[in-house]
Specification:
This protein has 8 helices and 20 strands. It is of the alpha+beta class. The N and C termini lie far apart (about 50 Å). The protein has an 8-stranded antiparallel sheet, with helices on both faces.
Length: about 325
């Protein structure tokens, strides 16, 4: 959806007000001015930022360096445009096929801002007049201003980052935030990433046959009435079983309970070592080790002695992920 130059100027001004209102002077408007040039009545032609086209793998590699980057998940036939700005800010913009990097068009963009005590700052603004609080999962807080519904800000407990989601359609921006589609980009070892290979719907019997064919354990959370089991395999041996509600289509970008099984030599020792790090939180289980990182509470990692596989249990609700593991629901397909 394309806006007029006048509308673009209006959005820039409001975005700056929204950001400065809670002392985070590094929001979308500041980025827009940095990358697109000064605000004028005519469409800006200057592109002063370092926007580049980047693949999902490139985003995962960048995220593996220790600084979170949030996005709306993979989308077929769209180009991911990455802009990095001073102060650690990062912007992932989704360009329609054929749209050049640096285009002045306005498209879905997810920004990540380093902000001290981001959760408290975001929660404080969410209670102000003229602000609408948005319900999000795994303990997060989100809001948008009634005068600027295209821009939604969110943060999670214990995180030093605030996320801003912009879409020219307010309804689309709201749906993305409420559905849990906004998440960190992770490399393989750090979190569930929707694989690049095709996903298919399978039955419990199909999963059992696959486990036999692989000659190793394939983990899941057991049968669930009414759920569709979505299976994805990658060339390097990773296997993902995702639990889709009846209303969801295979391949949907929305986030649901997912069990990943990763071949990993000495998985138990590796996972136990990671569980001993300062930011790790133990999840008690019988006969194995399980933990989650405070910065990524939606993902719980599990390993068992003598098994060269690590299991990841992901759910957009951290509480569900933790309870699924603690209740010993994760097991090999039988």
């Amino acid at each position: 959806m394309r806006k007029s130059a006048a509308n673009e100027t209006h959005w820039v001004t409001l975005g700056l007000v929204a950001v400065l209102a809670f002392a985070v002077a590094s929001g979308f408007a500041v980025w827009w001015l940095l990358v697109r040039g000064p605000t004028k009545a005519t469409e800006p032609t200057s592109t002063q930022g370092n926007a580049i086209a980047i693949s999902q793998g490139g985003l995962e590699t960048l995220a593996s360096l220790g600084r979170p980057i949030y996005w709306a998940g993979p989308r077929a036939h769209e180009t991911y445009e990455l802009t990095q700005a001073p102060g650690g800010r990062a912007f992932v913009r989704y360009l329609p096929s054929g749209t050049p990097v640096g285009s002045s068009g306005i498209y879905l963009t997810v920004a990540t801002y380093p902000v001290g005590n981001a959760f408290a700052a975001t929660r404080r603004v969410a209670t102000q007049a003229g602000v609408v609080k948005v319900s999000v999962g795994h303990g997060g807080i989100a809001f948008y201003r009634t005068r600027l519904p295209t821009n939604i800000y969110l943060a999670y407990p214990g995180s030093g980052y605030q996320i801003e989601v912009f879409d020219p359609s307010p309804a689309e921006a709201l749906q993305l935030v409420k559905s849990g589609a906004i998440a960190q980009v992770h490399e393989q070892s750090q979190g569930i990433t929707v694989p690049k290979t095709a996903a298919v719907a399978v039955s419990a019997a199909d999963l059992a046959k696959l486990q036999t064919r692989l000659g190793r354990n394939l983990y899941w959370a057991g049968s669930e009435v009414g759920a569709t089991y979505e299976l994805t395999q990658t060339p390097d041996g990773r296997v993902y079983v995702r639990y889709l509600p009846a209303s969801a289509k295979v391949g949907t970008p929305h986030l649901y309970l997912t069990i990943g099984t990763y071949p990993l030599a000495d998985a138990y020792a590796t996972t136990k070592s990671a569980a001993a790090k300062p930011d790790a939180v133990d999840v008690p289980i019988a006969g194995g080790v399980a933990f989650y990182d405070r910065s990524r509470p939606m993902s719980v990692y599990i390993a068992f002695p003598g098994v060269d596989e690590q299991i990841e249990v992901f759910d957009p609700s951290a509480e569900v992920a933790h309870s699924t593991v603690a209740r010993h629901l994760i097991r090999a397909v039988s």
